[in-house]
Specification:
Layout (H helix, E strand, L loop, with lengths): L1 H6 L3 H30 L4 H9 L1 H34 L5 H8 L1 H4 L2 H12 L6 H6 L8 H12 L1 H14 L2 H8 L4 H30 L2 H7 L9 H10 L3 H28 L1 H5 L5
Helix pairs in contact: 2-15, 3-15, 4-9, 4-10, 4-12, 4-14, 7-9, 7-13, 9-12, 9-13, 10-12, 11-12, 12-15, 14-15
Length: 281
């Protein structure tokens, strides 16, 4: 009984902490989210959908989906390859590779965008050569994709590395000893063991890719109808005092975020034990 008293808080402490947590969520999460949808529908449902089908809004939606469609598969390949190399092999520079994977977490997205301007801009290191050959990266879709890849590539790798490290190499070694090829071992042993952690990382990567603002804002050039993603389009509408239209597009981003959150919660509910292993490190 004495031990339990030492580790168990009094009921009023638990209730106080719970109330503080709920008030925080209400004030900083639920109320702003509700406000987005209220403002989006302030002028009626017809005005709401009119803002979403406006040509510039449709262009922003298409560009956002295109960027995510390119970014996520590329980060998927990189994340699996990096996690495989880090967890299954020993090599020089392994610690450096892990540090580089974490680099986007410590570098401001705005700085990342400026770096791409420095490299691919008209006065950048590769800018004159690109202009001579008719290749446009900065202030175009390729630059937006590159900047988005930079800020999102840690998500899948960081979900897989702890999981694959926890699993070790015993299953792969057993498969190889039974005559399986490396490719067969990867598809039939490794992938089934990491599939839920992989899907979880893809969800996080996709959510960040669609919501990225800082790096894309710098590299895009804010060309309306051409290089504006949904977050940038929201900013432009808001600065032009088109508040209902801005909140309408913002609500679409919020809906995408809620879908991602729902899928994330479902994965944690159905496969919690496997996903917990991805956070032990």
């Amino acid at each position: 009984m004495r031990r339990n008293a030492a580790v168990t808080e009094a009921p009023w402490v638990r209730w106080t902490l719970t109330a503080v947590a709920l008030l925080f969520l209400l004030g900083f999460l639920f109320l702003p989210l509700i406000a987005v949808f209220v403002e989006a529908l302030r002028n009626g449902v017809s005005a709401y959908f009119a803002a979403l089908v406006e040509p510039d809004a449709l262009a922003a939606i298409r560009l956002t989906l295109l960027t995510a469609a390119i970014t996520v598969p590329l980060n998927l390949v990189f994340g699996v390859a990096a996690a495989w190399a880090i967890t299954k092999f020993e090599f020089r520079g392994k610690s450096l590779l892990i540090s580089l994977i974490d680099l986007p977490f410590s570098v401001s997205p705005v700085v990342a965008g400026l770096i791409y301007i420095l490299i691919f801009g008209a006065q950048g290191w590769a800018g004159p050569w690109l202009m001579e050959h008719g290749i446009k990266v900065a202030f175009a879709v390729p630059g937006i994709v590159l900047a988005t890849i930079f800020v999102t590539f840690p998500f899948i790798a960081r979900e897989l590395i702890p999981l694959m490290h926890e699993q070790g190499t015993e299953y792969e070694q057993a498969a190889l000893s039974l005559g399986a090829s490396g490719w067969q071992t990867f598809w039939r042993v490794t992938v089934p063991n990491i599939r839920w952690g992989l899907l979880y990382g893809v969800l996080l990567c996709n959510a960040r890719a669609m919501g990225e603002f800082g790096a894309v804002s710098v590299i895009s050039g804010h060309i309306r109808g051409q290089t504006n993603t949904m977050p940038l389009h929201v900013e432009i509408l808001y600065n032009e005092y088109q508040f209902s239209a801005a909140f309408a597009v913002a609500s679409l981003l919020a809906l995408l975020a809620l879908v991602t959150l729902g899928l994330k919660a479902y994965l944690e509910w159905r496969h919690g034990d496997e996903l917990v292993a991805t956070r032990r490190h």
